[in-house]
Design brief:
Number of strands: 0
Radius of gyration: 18 Å
Number of domains: 1
Shape: flat
Order of helices and strands: HHHH
Low-confidence stretches: none
Largest sheet: none
Length: 96
């Protein structure tokens, strides 16, 4: 029989997806604050893009269930994130 401390500890433990959700909200808040502050420029644009791509990786890993998947099923998400991010970064860099 389990003790009450073990049951209580398991019942109130924060799940990893909850921590990731809070991190996603924090990153979204940072992006919003950058916009509200009126910051601009190439560095800021690339920072916001990097935050968006990182959020995409977190969503793929934790909410789409691809964290422990290998091979083909993880590949489309990674290709989409890196190809899209690379093309947008390239477009920003050649426009200046």
């Amino acid at each position: 029989m389990k003790s009450d401390k073990t049951i209580t500890k398991q019942r109130y433990a924060i799940r990893p997806c909850t921590v990731i959700y809070i991190a996603l909200m924090g990153l979204t808040f940072i992006t919003w604050m950058i916009g509200k502050a009126g910051l601009s420029g190439l560095d800021i644009s690339l920072l916001v893009l990097a935050l968006a791509l990182f959020k995409g990786l977190l969503i793929g890993d934790y909410f789409m269930g691809l964290r422990y998947v290998t091979g083909f099923w993880r590949l489309p998400i990674l290709i989409w994130i890196f190809l899209t991010g690379g093309l947008i970064t390239w477009a920003f860099l050649i426009s200046t």
